[in-house]
Amino acid sequence: MVTSNNKFISGFRKFVFFQYLKIYVFLVYTKRLILGEFNIRVYFIFIKRALLFLSKVTVNKVVKTRGVYKIHIYFPAFPTKAFFIALDKFLLLKEDKIKPYPTSVLLSMTKACNYKCRHCYQKKDILKDIPINKLINLTKQIQDLKISFINIEGGEPLLKFDRLMDMLKSIDGRSEVWVNTTGFSLTEEKAKKMKEAEVFGIMASLHHWDRKKHDDFVGEKGAYDIALNALKIFSKAGISTAINCTGTQELIQEDGFENIMEIAKNNKVAIVQLIHEKPAGAWISKKDTLNKEYVKKLYDIHLKYNTSSKYKDYPAVSSQVFESSENNFGCTAGGIERFYVNANGDVQACEFVNLSFGNINEEPFIDIYNRMRKTFNKPRTKWICCIEHEKIQNALKKSTPISKKESNRIFQNFDLGKETGLYKKMKLYD
């Protein structure tokens, strides 16, 4: 077994790294220009867009993991094949089936789960898992559309391990693959098989530093120890590890996230994703998720752990509040940079927006995707999951997501906000 070791690059070394990355990218695309893959005008527009994108990720701590470099949690590692497929979206090539195509997708492969998480956005999803052949066909279509980051979740994927492996075997090197897990039912043999299936990394759920509070939050006794054991097993297998932490207002007010980071550091974690409270699923009626003091703390945590020399040996932090802020990427749901497909085949703008644009059991995926993009035609500044959830709650009857027809009606009254400044400068969605 090969242990997954990480190196964290910050300060002046990070500055040097990004200069190297820019030169590398410049040389790769200059060669492609010379070979006639695109004209000089496309080339210079691409360079401008690539530099604008990189300007937003240089604040992040760079993580060298598995011999390559992660500059953003949902962007493939440099200099892999998937990295350059993701970067190619800035070219808008004639042969692209979708222009511009998204970078990542979150796929729920099963609802099977024995946890009872308080915040579960799938809590009210009740329909059956889609047949495995349709799931495999979907992943192939996703790769053909040049989506280069595939994040697989459940429920708990490990509970349907054969289904997970069938899915993993259908994905090739055009996409970087991560799996979200609680760690429940994990064995060293399962981790080994996942590594052989070229899983790049896993994101383990850990929502509190206190053992009892975490177990209570997810509704499963022993869940805390299961999560930490999973980090060790995956790391030993040579799979990169991350932690998904829901930064509740209680946790942040208690400065409990610092303890999460100590756990992450001690367990050789590469990245910690700090997730903002979302009023969806079981939390659909949750209030005050946009509390200014709370949001600012989540924003500042991203800067603290990624830029302060005091934390140079700690994992990188990806705070959703920082990444989705108006000054950065904004909300990129709806197929701009990301979208979600739930376990029963409903295509959603985001896992935290319980509305369906259609189901792949009933119509072709590409038709559903194109319909979604007509609504989400540009990256926007407002987080609709937090500002429009009451409209979803009022329309909710028995289960989520709300039907395609009803969802379309609800979307007509959504305020998506203005276009994010970054993408406006890129002129990528004009």
Describe it for me?
This protein is of the alpha/beta class and 430 residues long. The chain has 17 helices and 12 strands. It has helices at 11-34, 40-57, 81-87, 132-144, 161-169, 188-196, 211-218, 223-237, 249-253, 257-266, 292-307, 320-323, 365-375, 384-387, 389-395, 404-411, 421-426; strands spanning 6-9, 62-65, 68-70, 104-108, 149-153, 176-181, 201-205, 240-246, 271-275, 316-319, 340-341, 347-348. The strands form 2 sheets. Strands 10-9-8-7-6-5-4-11-12 form a 9-stranded mixed sheet. Strands 1-2-3 form a 3-stranded antiparallel sheet.
Tally of contiguous helical segments: 17
Q: Which structural class matches the secondary elements?
A: alpha/beta
Which overall shape is indicated by the principal axes computed on the Cα atoms?
globular
* Sequence stretches where pLDDT stays below 50 over 5 or more residues: none
Largest sheet descriptor: 9 strands, mixed
Report the sheet-strand fraction: 5-15%
Radius of gyration: 20 Å
Q: In total, how many beta strands?
A: 12
Question: What is the mean pLDDT?
Answer: 96
Q: Terminal Cα separation, in Å?
A: 49 Å
Helix content: 40-55%
> Widest sheet: strand order?
10-9-8-7-6-5-4-11-12
Name the helix and strand elements from N-terminus to C-terminus, one letter apiece: EHHEEHEHEHEHEHHEHHEHEHEEHHHHH
